[in-house]
Amino acid sequence: MQRSPNDLSQLQATMRAIEVACSSIQMMVNRAEAEATILSLCQSPQPYQACQYILENSQMPNARFQAATAIRDAAIRDYCLCYVMQRASSPEGYVQAKVSAAAAQLMKRGWLEFSAAEKETFLSEVKQATLGIHGADVQFIGIKLMESLVSEFSLSTSTAMGLPAEFHDQCQKSMELEYLKTFYCWARDAASSVTNKILDSDSPVPETKVCTAALRLMLQILNWDFRYSKNGLESAKGKKNVFSAQVGNDNNLSRRSECTIVQPGPVWHDVLISSGHIGWLLSFYGALRQKFSCEGFWLDCPLAVSARKLIVQFCSLKGNIFHSDIGQMQENHLLQLLSGIMQWINPPDEVSKAIESGKSESEMLDGCRALLSIATVTTPVVFDQLLKSISPFGTLTLLSALMCEVLKVLMVRNAEEETWSWVARDLLLDTWTALLVSIESGGETGLLPAVGRNAASNVFSLIVESELKAASASAFSDDMASDYFQASASAMDERLSSYALIGRASIDITIPLLTNLFNERVARLHQGRGITDPTVTLEELYSMLLIIGHVLADEGEGETPLVPKAIQTQHVASGESEKHPVVVLSSSILNFAKQSLDSEMRASIFSPRLMEAITWFLARWSSTYLMPSEETGESNSGSCYDNNHMVQSSVSSKAFLIFGEHNQGKSVLDLVVHIATTTLVSYPGEKDLQALTCYHLLHALVRRRNVCVHLVGLDSWRRLANAFANERLLFTLYSAHQRSLAQTLVVSASGIKNPEASNQYVRDLMCHMTNYLMELSSKNDLKIVAHQPDVILLVSCLLERLRGAARATEPRMQKAIYEMGSTVMNSILIFLEVYKHEFAVVYLLLKFVVDWVDGQIIYLEAQETAGVVNFCMRLLQLYSSHNIGKISLSISSSLLSEAKTEKYKDLRALLQLLANLCSKDLVDFSSDSPETPGTNISQVVYFGLCIVIPLISLDLLKYPKLCHDFFSLLSHLLEVYPEMVAQLNDEAFSHVLGTLDFGLHHQDMEVVDMCLRALKALASYHYKETTVGKVGLGTRAAGSKDQNGQMSEGIFGRFLRTLLHLVLFEDYSTDLVSAAADALLPLILCEQSLYQRLGNELIERQVNPAFKSRLANALQCLTSSNQLSFTLDRMNYQRFRKNLINFLVEVRGFLRTIKILVLFPVLFVCKSVLQTSRIQDPGRILFEKIYPKQVK
């Protein structure tokens, strides 16, 4: 566009005035007048042409900088803020939302540079809008602008801007400490200013939208991650505050609950607590509720939903926002809320009836969420007392009544899809869990009041009734989506765990109840045997066994579970141990399970599904109650919190010793083994049942050595071992189950006191399998016989068994397992040759070798080690020579994917094998003296890696596990044996460097970290070697001439460039900065001249003198501040880490975003689009034009 002479002269005059003002500020002359001149440019209505002219023609950098700043301010003021305010009544809300978001992003970008006055100028316009002076539409827009700002400044919802994490942290801190509370007050005032008009109007009014937006903003602010305003008043000295931060178990409610704890700190006390604001909100919602009581749909309107959500969130307030008055203030706060919430959920029967009649359930569910929030921030005693001051019953009684009513609805409707009663049940279960889990984990059973135990027993009784009814209804159901049709205890484990907590709260009632119900079902089975269909009763028994198993015992999660504290401390056994409720119930189930050993009973009663439940129960119960060690019992009982409960715990522990080693424990153990054998032999093809037996029940028996001592002496166990070793019956098991069974049988040998006898036990167990493999491999017609289906199956099963035995390696049995593996070494190589096209068999061969070497290598003597290493190298060479798993591009895509998967599994096994060999240099339990010559493990592993690397493609490295294993091994080798790199051939060396470069740019932070550690090791090794006159990595580091005679850069120069570019310009986690610093320091020391040249080039590319100066100073400080020296000791690494962090904070932001300053051509386009577009989303276009990099 051509400018007229008058326009041009005016622009030139403006530029000269700005240049004079900038010079005056620099020379400290007429500063006030100069600042006024610059401010006039920023505040002028349309500064874009003048700013464009200054940016294109001024030779003064400061003048161009002020012009860019003026454009930024005008963009926020003229285009974003003015656009949404002027079009407040537009129906295109999504456009306004997008422009508001753009304004928030522009504000955030300049937030740390804006002065307080500049922020106040923008926010004052927002405040004026929220006051409602310009009407409800503008008021609504002002609130939405604040919502966009809060969203943008929150770390969890902020936009990716390509700026350092420190920038976002500082913005969040500034918002939280300076403006968040103010925004809340503006939203509160906006909501309260329109309530009267809403209540007085009989028709919809615009103010409803304003009030809804204000309530949503208040809720959004309360959901803020408060980090900087929590510190304040401490609890009164010497007094326990039941509402302190330690009360409640937030981490235990992560699965189903929707509860978010709010801890804004004492500075929010006046706004949230003492202002009467909560009372106003409750009164407002109550008035609306009464006004629209005849309109059921009103409960789901945005205003009602927002108000209830805010009330529920107030129930989650916690911490030092409440004064140190031993929790009295928070108790009053919760009581006030509970008083308003009561009408949503009480009386439960009437509420439920109204919902079933068509009323919306949303209010009732929000009431349940409020109870969950209250339970999360308080204790059971205080929770119950809250309601007693305003009603004849406590909160626990109300909770129980609600839960019972919901369960009754579930039983009546028997709905298979999720309904309101399902959601309510889960919310109320979480509430019970929040109250009881601290009692269960901390041994504070006495904190649950008597009325609470009665309420819990009532709830548990109805829970059992509802579960039994659901089980009965599902007995003949063909719906595979039904909970009860799934033959897995884990499908209901979360809900059952909550049931268990409720049941344990009153075991004197609940466990006898379970015993009676169980015995009734068993009696019904016997009475109707051969007469009536037992399906319903079997399904009920299945459900009962799951519930009982959860009540009596915990899972343990890898550790030996103790008897739950609630069971120990609540019941004092009267007289004989046999009369303890837990003993009575356990004995009933054991006696019932024993009947499964009878073939006729098994055929008529014990279906595979019922046996799954019995097996699961026995595994869980045995881990806790079968032959408990005396040390465990004493430790468990001693953890109780007062003398009375310690006595009760001691009595209960003695009662449980009835299943101990010196009582009925051995006979019960024998029974369990018989049942396990029966499930493996008498239920062929029942894969799930046999998996429970092999992986859970049998593993539970060998988990403790004191049980193994008795186990190996049982005839039933010896018969099981003999059948495994010598009979073909157990070969019908799934091959992976055979591996588990082999591992269990070998582990049981730890119970044999004589080490030689332990080894002989293992030899006897495995010798027939090794002999068969040796005989098969020596057959002349092996290549013909081996590919018969039955032979492939047999070989696979034998390999799985050998693998299971190898995984059970312990020092006591190590000798026998070594002999087992060494016996079949040659057979393994023969099978690898014969089965080279059978992927499944090859994988089993490799996995056996991996597990065997893993268990054996650290125990082997020098000669044995040499033999094992030689075998592994032959295996690697054979695998590579046949190029097993070679992928052909001519095959179909599905076959190609399958081939890649098979190759990935093989290569991962080979990498694990090499990693296991490395462990010999780290841990060595052999009896060899240090002078004994041994195998050079580093040389062997590098040689193996050179064999494996050519088989690994970049496509295969997309498999996360293979990628992790590969870089883990590579990093380990380069860190521990860096000197071996110089000995690699050119092809292998090129592969290593290429994969390192690939790993540095990987998405997985752990892979990048491993590559950085490898680079650190290589560079530090070379630097240390060269400083003492050695060659280090020699020509590998110095570079070489290419075919044209040009000198190529050495490896450290290449990686120095790569790493500098990574830390300065690329996206990465800030957690990697320390690892990057550790790698960068030795690289800089190895290539000091290159580092200086790269730094100078970077400085010269900066156009802005201010940025150029900052960058030069930062580069100087990076290598000189903090007393940094030219050594690679621990202290120097720490100093350089600090230097790099400061360096990145100083320069990374402007280096990555310097190109974004030139915005003015974009703004003209955006202005035209916003004013004329009728087709696309103008807000989207505005964002794309201003931030094209982010959009890309």
UniProtKB/TrEMBL annotation:
UniProt cross-references to InterPro entries, sorted A to Z: ARM-like (IPR011989), ARM-type_fold (IPR016024), XPO1_C_dom (IPR014877), XPO4/7-like (IPR044189)
Species of provenance: Dillenia turbinata
Family: Belongs to the exportin family.
Gene3D superfamilies in UniProt: Leucine-rich Repeat Variant
UniProt main location, coarse: cytoplasm
Assigned keywords, A-Z: Cytoplasm, Nucleus, Protein transport, Transport
Gene Ontology cellular-component annotations: cytoplasm; nuclear pore
Identification of the protein by name: Exportin-4
Segments forming domain Exportin-1 C-terminal: 949-1019
GO MF annotation, one: nuclear export signal receptor activity
Compartment annotation: Cytoplasm; Nucleus
Stretches assigned to coiled coil: none
One biological process term in Gene Ontology: protein export from nucleus
Pfam families cross-referenced by the UniProt entry: CRM1_C
